[in-house]
Write a structure and sequence with these properties.
4 helices, flat, mainly alpha
Length: 97
């Protein structure tokens, strides 16, 4: 998947007519993640003062970055990397007891 993501962005950078596709992709993932975060807030699992827009941007950007590092540099994403990434995000948004 990371190679696909890298290729997707690579093609877009060379083809300005594909910008709409990039915006559609971002909007789709943005909507899904924003809904998940809002649902977590509504359920009392996440902090009420989360800046959803910023968190979605951070999550999407870092996921693309991880994909880039994996596909271009060949550095595999390990279980520890995934765990640390999730822990980092959750520390920012999870509601404490």
């Amino acid at each position: 998947m990371s190679r696909f993501t890298f290729e997707f962005w690579s093609v877009l950078s060379r083809n300005p007519n594909m910008a709409d596709k990039a915006k559609e992709r971002y909007k789709m993932f943005y909507t899904i993640l924003a809904e998940i975060l809002q649902q977590g807030i509504n359920n009392g699992e996440f902090k009420e003062d989360i800046d959803i827009e910023s968190m979605v941007y951070i999550i999407l950007s870092s996921m693309d970055g991880i994909g880039f590092v994996n596909s271009v540099m060949g550095i595999s994403m390990t279980h520890d990397i995934v765990k640390n990434y999730i822990d980092m995000i959750l520390k920012k948004i999870e509601k404490g007891d």
